[in-house]
Amino acid sequence: MGWVKRFLALSATLLGLSGAAMAAGGWSLPGQASSKSDIEQPAVSVRLIAEKDAIVPQGLNQLAVVIKQENGWHTYWTMPGDAGLATRFTFSLPNEMTATEPQFPFPERIETQGIVSFAYNGETVFPLTVSVPRDAGNGKATITVEVDYLACKDLCVPGHATASIELPYKIAADPSADADLVRRGMRLIPEKHTAIKAYGTQEGTKLRIQLPADIVKVQHSLVFYPLEANQFVLTDPGQYAKDKDGATSLYFTLNEEFAKTGAKSLRGVFVADGGPEKQGGWAAEATVDVSAGTVVRPLNADQPKIINQDEETSLTLWTALLLALAGGFMLNLMPCVFPVLSLKILSLVEGQRRGEPLLPHGLAFTAGVIVCMLILSGVLIALRSFGMAFGWGFQLQSSWVVAALLLLFVAISLNLLGLYEFTLGSALGNANKAEKGSTFHSFLTGVLAVVVASPCTAPFMGAALGYALTRPSLEALGIFVALGLGMSIPWLALCVSPSWVRLMPRPGAWMNTFRRIMAIPMLAAALWLGWVLLQQIEWQGQIAVGVAVVATALACWLFGRQQWGKGRYTLLIGALCLAMAGMVGTVGLGYYDRTSSVDIEGDWEAWSPEAVQEALSQGRPVFVDFTAAWCIACQANEATAIKRDNVRDAFNKYNYARFIGDWTNYDPRITKELERFKRSGVPLYLVYKPNGQVTVLPQFLTPETIIDALKENAK
Description:
Immunoglobulin-like
């Protein structure tokens, strides 16, 4: 058991360090700068380019600053949002030249851990105009710009860059090689539209902005980016709606303090139908005149009328406790739990063979289940109390946790196959006498069962878990304890009742065969975890985990040979264990995490609130599938119901927009959407009518259930 204890200690240490890092700011949110020496440096490049190949005195000289960020990094708009710093430019110009301030194109809305920013990804062009006097001179002019920026990825790093361009003076100039890029940048600058009049109506913290149909044309979507900070609750992205008279309305939530000021106007940038580069799209800066009035937010995706086909949402504490108890009991039948419980079966059979009292094993297993349940639920409640969007089963959203479990299941499988004589959760280490501390093994079996089982709880008790996470901490913990007790009751009852124990088969040679048979579900579980990892990480991380699996198997084989006196391999085993930990550690850094783990094919699209809203604005019904690769119920529903030919035909017949919300890796937006529907985990299936009414489907689907819902909500 020494290596197991060391493994668990290492895991606990890593978790502790991660938590400490979060508390200390080691995992910074956007806008939290960190020391350059401690973190990855952003790959941000700055260029200064010109539309013409020369400087023309008394002419229009169009230049642009180009900032290019490596994939995953972003810099900030003139109004950065909840956090961040706007990019700043300082020019050095010769011969009494002057330059306008670079113009900012419209940004992208980025939300990270509840922090909303307005920022730029990839390559961004900031156009400007340089005025040159008539007697500027001859020869060449050198123009220099210094750029101060804040670049953010997982952490934020302040940066400084300098760029120059040297251009000759000419009476007439030709287009430069960068002319198209400068012109594209100019097209993305919001127009200063004095003709656009937007009217705002305020009621408390509710704001409606209306664009009359006779002033501007909006077909499918409209976004408003405020130009001043601390006015809006930015986590509310705004709600788009078409009025009966053809006008367009946006609905927002105002900052409570700002709402009290009674401001008469707001400034911002409107972006319609994807912006100027999209067909029919446009972007314009405008002032919104605000007056007091009544604001009624329409029923649509942001404030849905919900019809729940699955379960009652009005629970009492006692109902939630009973549901948790029953749900825990049902977990013993789930395929994700059975491989671990097979170890418990072996433990009881071996204990009965030796004539040991089984009650301590049952109590230890129950204690392991409840302790782990309290730890996981306590961490979850604590994270949510700090405003972080996490849901039940969050531990399997971490690729390094899945990788560690994979290695553990491989090691257990090899033990059951007889490659070495060490065990976790059973008392099979010595065939002739009881292993010292075997109750501790039962305790660890309970811990492992909860870690693996937690993602399987949602189909049985989604309502109870959702209720728990909205209640005070003590009530919530009580519900999770009831879940653990429900899971433990069958095993505790078996250990308590001697009559039931006597029904167990007598020990014999069959036990070795049974032990090897129990390796089959354990290997199946390892394969399942491996498949989950394939969905979570890119090929580089997959290679690292593959190396770790090979190192684990080799270490177990060498340990077995050492046990049987066929050599001393202590140093080699230690080296293999270090290699195993190192490979898993690289996965834990998050560099190889996939942005999408679910294959999105055919007519399916990646889910986002904006995408759903746009489909609804086009008058289409919407189907949303919130899923995860590690969710067994999700995969079963997909195979038996969602991907059936008759269901696919119904989607096409009724013109449904179809979206997949992939929760395999951490995604705070999906977590918040689950919370909005009083869920703490997946699966979650939503069917939207074009008017925004939402039907929540059962968590166990049939083709008939889906088809009936599609037909009912098509109009």
